[in-house]
User: Fold these one by one.
Assistant:
Number 1:
Amino acid sequence: MWSATTDDGPFNGLLERPALRSLIPRPLTGRSILDAGCGSGAQCAWLLDEGAEVTGVDLSPMMIDQARQRCGSRANLLVADLAEALPLQARSFDGVTCSLALHYLRDWQVPLASFARVLCPGGWVVLSLDHPFGTPLPDQRGGYFQRQLVSDTWTKADVQVTQHFWRRPLAQVVDAFADAGFLIERIAEPRPSDEAMRRFPTELRNVIDSPSFIVYRLRYSGDPE
């Protein structure tokens, strides 16, 4: 039920994921893709259906179990912490996807270095984050220019969850990418589709003209600054 309400929900399924997938270079047939922070495997399954060879990693053993139920033996799935160097072979992936996972980490140096290390020359990363210009959250006290831990609470599948994540100004985001050797190639700022608004008018009305997520496509330059 949790995965279903995420996969077909207003924010993940109908707002963030279409934008993230729109920036992924095609075709994917025969490409080796890492899904970092893969959760219950929805993105892995989509990548597999697009013809990619997929490896998924997530911190949660429970999420990896759900991903295995979804993807079977088609994907290589393992428990791994993005805050630590990933146990994957260097120069073994054409691309990396990372959906709403990086902002749970205070320090991005290790995960971005892992992405750079495992990518083949010219490889790409498509990742999504909470938008730095998003509406301030109730416990956000320090202002836009400070990196700070904030929290948000929502109900999904009749379960109330509070998530803690880091907000940082746009300059800190861009500097982190550049320091790891990545160039920003494209940006998407998702807005609800007509279909999404028909299905979830109440849930999505506040994000029609206000930013919620941001998606970056990065290209590895191989020359960290």
Number 2:
Amino acid sequence: MSARNKRNKTQAILEQALKLPSAERAQIAEHLIASLDEGSDTDVEQAWQEEVQRRIQQIDRGEVQTIPWEEVRRQLRRSR
């Protein structure tokens, strides 16, 4: 298949996909992104899971307080 034919085929697929409802487009995007992943590092994945659990426990114990998104956004806009 020539490069031009590949581009046309890719463009046709993209145009069809963009006509789908957002939930279906999100599902396709998820699959495409996952297909690009050349294998996940299980040690890194495990470390992130442990970090997430540690942070949740800190919040549950009252050791840290969360900041509402609206406040974070205001602070970011002021810092520009």
